[in-house]
Amino acid sequence: MTTTVTIIGYVYKDEDGDSRYDPSNDIPIVGATVTVTVSNNETAQSTTDNYGKYVLNVSPEATYYLDVSLPTGLCSYDPDNGDWSNNHSTITGQQTVNVPSNSTQQINVDIAVNYSYLNYHPESEQNFTYRIWHAGPIFKGKPNTILVHGAVVPEIWDTQTKPNTNIHFLNLGQLLRSKAGGQHNVWEFEYADECKDNMAHTGCANYGDLNKYVTELIETINLVRSWNPGNNINIIAHSMGGLIARGAVQDPKAGNVDKIITLDTGHFGFNLAEYARYFSDQAVVKEVAPGSKFVYDLCKGFQNGQHNLLSLAAHDLLMGLGIVSWTSSRLVEVSNDGSTRYDHDNTPFSIVNGVNHMSIAQINNVTHPAFAKIQDFFEGRQIDQQELPSGSQSQVDTYFTVVLGNELQSDPKLLLNGKPVGQIVDRISNDEVNQEYHAVVFNVDIDPPYQDIQIEYASNKREEGQLTKKQSSIRLDVLPN
Fold first, then answer.
1. In which order are the strands placed within the sheet that holds 413-416?
2. pTM for the complete prediction?
3. Strand 144-148 to 233-238 pairing
4. What's the CATH code of the domain at 262?
5. How many structural domains are present in the chain?
6. What pLDDT digit, counting tens, does each position of 358-399 carry?
């Protein structure tokens, strides 16, 4: 009769979903603890080796429960338990093994695990001023990639229970963590401020200024570097997050950052901010507008060759609003005389077809048109770069936004040479603080590049303006009440 039975197997992340360990496809989990219990009593433990393999010796004629854990030793917040500890596990995995009395001397049991999200914000600041989410083990020898989301308007977000960067990036973190995606250590930097009781707002949003978020990202970069030293730091940033990322990496305190990818970032400002300031009192709205001091200082401090940065621009416009122009999405060096120089080698620019300002970052699978460009850039392959396009109607249409006072008639008109032109594609209104503003977005195909126009916003009331041929351009005209 067998007196000892060996349970042997591998702890792994099932990458292809076939419930079977395949070292060519799946990720072995190194250093995990496999604990065996029977009748609620712990009987044995084993630590997985460099191949994810564990070995346990047990007695026959019993049912054993195998539980897998992998504490990092770093202070983290577990949203499931709602507490801070150095012992939270980055993985979960269980198996039940029945060992009969007539069992053979060896039983093979592989254990698939799920990754757990933990918040690694420093223990000394457990007030959720910002969060650093990470799922799964910290893999040595693999690159660290920090995701930086875009601007957050006031929303109801539970900042302590889940990484809301997933709203902006969907499955991008999961794809980068996969074996096929390069097995990056993905850190999700969430800088949406938690609402305080004395604030008039509800939920979470970016109530601070950009320099505050730049400082927090610099802290995050250095913390990640300390947690996984000797490995590259990369950043993928969406929209306003790209300005925050550039502000951080252009500061010497951030140290060396290997590669940066911006997704539809207005490096020279966001056109939408020109009229969004009428609908939001967030400081960042003014700071991301073209010509703001933050944008000016950021661009003045940039030099070609300073960073290895890929700018990806959305081909389609979001709701006709033209949030950012292609000319602003492409990062170039600006000389004192106003001339610009584009560096194909170090700051390539590429347009992503079939996506708009939001969906360029909402990467749900490997077929998303931006994901291949991200992988190519990380792996050093050539990026298909584009010059700023011209000629086709979809590329030269102007999205012309007019902010009007409360004398707005039901159907304002855009007049060229006294005749109505263009088509209204969107309206936004705001009546907070006893004020009323209306933003009306026209889509107009113009030729030649500049046209003097009039906006008829009420009976016999017109305002002069000028249309400019510019991708996704927005011009602001504030009309008197």
1. 419-421, 413-416, 450-458, 461-468
2. 0.81
3. parallel
4. 3.40.50.1820
5. 3
6. 899 999 999 999 999 999 999 999 888 876 554 333 333 455
